[in-house]
Amino acid sequence: MSLVVETAPAKINLALHVTGQREDGYHLLDSLVTFTERGDLLTARLADTDDFTLSGPFSKGLETDGGNLVIRARDLLRDAVQAAGGDTPPVVLHLEKNLPVASGIGGGSADAAAALRALMRVWNATLPDATLATLALRLGADVPMCLAGRPAIARGVGEDLTPVTTLPSLNLLLVNPLKPVSTPETFRRLARRDNPPMEPLPSSFALTDWIDFLAGQRNDLEPAARQIVPEIGFITTLMNLTGARLACMSGSGATCFGLYETREAARAAERNLRSAQPGWFVQAMTTVSGDEP
């Protein structure tokens, strides 16, 4: 088996409604998610011994042992494949970390999902979809949706996924002030946990219909995250000034996305904000389309 490469794209919560809380503390969500075409890169190849290495602008300080979700994904998948009678020889995994850490765009969950996909290919493994989904959920509530990597409605704690085939490809600008946000702390600061769910999705593939729909939805975590990182409000204001049709925070923050009508408009905004804020993460991205195979 030659080198296998898997992208770990950014997960964007276009809307995130917190609708309840379970007795075990997990929050119930009604969220529309999509994924960028680029992100972190995970490579895997067979070797004489297991190894895991890191590179990239946001790799500093990341763990390379069992505390990293990539390693946990490797170990859990290895156990599952071996239990099914498969062979799991040693592998070298390398993660190129291009996206900010603790930034509300998937991060470690996307990396873990990429590791699962890469290792299934390297080991030529076959597992039932239900088994792989259960394993992904053990790694974290966001990992199942990152494993699918397609536009979806995520309900429950994030594991109940319904594909959204009518969502078009979007031109986004992602901006993060490079201040990490603790997801548990954001949830702790929620004013309420029984908010209304999302409205019915557009049946149209037209971008204008989706912009109008998204403008009426919410990220219930954004007010709480702004208490932790006030720059979030400044970022969305800047995006609106650069012509964004919509500017909102993704996930638990602090990454915000601006939605633009064209790729050229998103790239022009990228140039403007990079010049104005050279210390921030500023990246124009295109998302996958819901009707792609």
Overview of the structural elements:
The protein is an alpha+beta fold and 293 residues long. It folds into two domains: 4-162, Ribosomal Protein S5, domain 2 (2-Layer Sandwich), CATH 3.30.230; 165-286, GHMP kinase, C-terminal domain (Alpha-Beta Plaits, 2-Layer Sandwich), CATH 3.30.70. Helices cover 32% and strands 27% of the residues. It is built from nine helices and ten strands. The strands form two sheets. Strands 1, 2, 3, 4, 5 and 6 form a six-stranded mixed sheet that branches. The protein has a four-stranded antiparallel sheet with strand order 8-9-7-10, with helices on both faces. The two termini are 25 Å apart. The model has no long low-confidence stretch (mean pLDDT 95).
Features:
293 residues; alpha+beta; Ribosomal Protein S5, domain 2; Alpha-Beta Plaits; four-stranded antiparallel β-sheet; 9 helices; 27% strand
Provide a compact summary of the structure.
With 293 residues, the chain is an alpha+beta fold.
Identify the overall geometry. globular
- First-last Cα distance: 25 Å
> What share of residues are in beta strands?
25-35%
CATH class of the largest domain: Alpha Beta
- Poorly predicted tracts of residues: none
Protein name: 4-diphosphocytidyl-2-C-methyl-D-erythritol kinase
GO molecular function: 4-(cytidine 5'-diphospho)-2-C-methyl-D-erythritol kinase activity; ATP binding
Pfam family, one: GHMP_kinases_N
Binding site for ATP: 100-110
